[in-house]
Amino acid sequence: MSHSIREEFEKIEQERGWSTLFYRLATEHGIRTLEKKNDIALMNSNRALNRFRDVLPYDDTRVRLKNGPTDYINASLINVPLAKRHYILTQGPLPTTSEHFWQMIWEQNSCVIVMLTKLIERGYNKCWLYYPDYSNDSELIYDQVDLKVTFISEKPGLFYTQRKFDLTNMRTGEVRPIIHWHYTDWPDHGNASMFNEENGCSRSLNVLLGAPESAQTFLEFLMKVRRSGAFDPRYGAPILHCSAGIGRSGTFVLVDSILVMLAHTANPKEISLTEVLAHIRLQRHGLIQTYEQLRFSYLAIIEGYKILDALEASHAPFLDESYELSSNSESSSEEDDNYEHKRQPFFREDNIMRSTALSDNLEDINTELIHRLDSNASIYTPMTSAPVRNNSFTLSTLISGDMKSELLLTNHHNNGESSTITPSTTERTKTVSPLADVTANDTNDDKTSLRLRTERLKRNEILDKKVQDIKEKLQNKQQLSKRLTNSIFALFSSKKRRPLLIYGIVSLLTLTGTIFFYKFYYNGGIIMRKK
């Protein structure tokens, strides 16, 4: 046991000095970071890209985007050398920064995302829905960065949800698997004051920050994240975010890195939690936002030390097998008790979007999903033998009565390999190999993606044309005003009007000469005669 950290915890707990310790560390942090700059984040072009106006990345540790409309994202690279750990901490994506978020994941070659906040907590928007959840959209396309995020599966549990996506580069066609871990057991209570800046408008609000009472679920979640290959050195750093990317995310970094250090040191007393915290705070401002989070970090490390061997054994590479649901027998039997149900794309009624009040594009997606449902329902062969595990339910009248037949969809797991669907109104079924099924679905996905992308490009072309027409009209008005202002100059400078110009000049000279002759010569002669 790390006696130093445990003794510190017991002493602070006895003296009730968590608030005093937290503010002392905050003061020391302020002194250490006097020379740190965040000028890039404060640029006018980047202010609207920050969720909170006082949570900004330092210039020297910020993540720089390589290709795209901007190189700025509110994200920081965190390096803990003693633990040989690298993390990327970022804010919860905004509607205007979701594409930058996925661009960063692609460019940093990250394969695991750790989300530590709910989308909405106590009525406050904590994070934008930046990923496809299949109940709303099966995929998200970001044209500006040429990336597509496709929903693969979702596995909700009691205190976390595991999602899996495919991230596709639409320029090259390269596809990368992404595992998304969503921790949902963090209580939405506590006290802190933050400033929110959305859409360029700053406003003050109360952000509710707290910490779990027990570290058990958090440590189990950490073990799952490690087991998924989040820290595989062949890939980029895992992406961690909460709402601001400093409180819960900082807690995760502090607990994980210190547990790694404790596992690889002969003298645990040499490891100081406050020194590690001071080090990571030099790389992103404000990590650990409240003294409750600081106390929880101590508690999680103390509890984690008791199962240190199990935590270390949970480290695993990021493999294709880890990307499959229930890929190994160890997790399949162990995790089924935790998970409320397993959710697959085509086997949920709420995954099918209703056909009422949809735009043309959503109608196309809806039709495509029904087509995929039919194709998937027809490729399986019914099994007469009793399955090992059975999770059945009925899809009745899927979309506005268009499908009047009922399908009894029974998902059988036989050694994690086979599944069956038995249509109650269909007597004949076709048997197709799984490879052919995957190929057919991939083809449908590609066609759907291409069609939707083409439609978006057409809409963009129409909008661009309208913008160009408006610009041309404005330019014509400006040119007309200039012509009216410079009409005299245009009259003199036009080649076609040169004869008219010459005629006018001659006429003017003739008139002037006549007046001069009449005034001086004719009148002068009359005066001379009178004399």
TrEMBL record:
Please state the Enzyme Commission number of this protein: 3.1.3.48
Domain of life, per UniProt, equals: Eukaryota
Spans annotated as Disordered: 413-432
Query: One of this protein's GO BP terms?
Result: negative regulation of receptor signaling pathway via JAK-STAT
UniProt-listed Gene3D superfamilies: Protein tyrosine phosphatase superfamily
**Residue ranges crossing the lipid bilayer per the database entry:** 500-521
Q: Which GO terms describe its cellular component?
A: cytoplasm; endomembrane system; nucleus
Major location (coarse)? membrane
SUPFAM superfamilies given in the database record: (Phosphotyrosine protein) phosphatases II
GO MF annotations, alphabetized: non-membrane spanning protein tyrosine phosphatase activity; protein kinase binding
InterPro entries associated with the record: NR_tyrosine_phosphatase, Prot-tyrosine_phosphatase-like, PTP_cat, Tyr_Pase_AS, Tyr_Pase_cat, Tyr_Pase_dom
**Residue ranges of domain Tyrosine-protein phosphatase in the record:** 5-304
Coiled-coil boundaries: 460-487
Which residue stretches does the UniProt record annotate as biased composition, category Polar residues? 413-426
Q: What class of enzyme is it?
A: hydrolase
The record's annotation in Pfam families points to:
Y_phosphatase
Domain Tyrosine specific protein phosphatases, residue spans? 216-295
Keyword annotations: Coiled coil, Hydrolase, Membrane, Phosphoprotein, Protein phosphatase, Transmembrane, Transmembrane helix
Query: Where in the cell does this protein reside?
Result: Endomembrane system
Q: List the PANTHER family hit by this protein, alphabetically.
A: TYROSINE-PROTEIN PHOSPHATASE NON-RECEPTOR TYPE 61F (PTHR46047)
Protein family according to the UniProt entry: Belongs to the protein-tyrosine phosphatase family. Non-receptor class 1 subfamily.
Q: What is this protein called?
A: protein-tyrosine-phosphatase
Q: Which species is this UniProt entry from?
A: Didymodactylos carnosus
Its lineage reads:
Eukaryota, Metazoa, Spiralia, Gnathifera, Rotifera
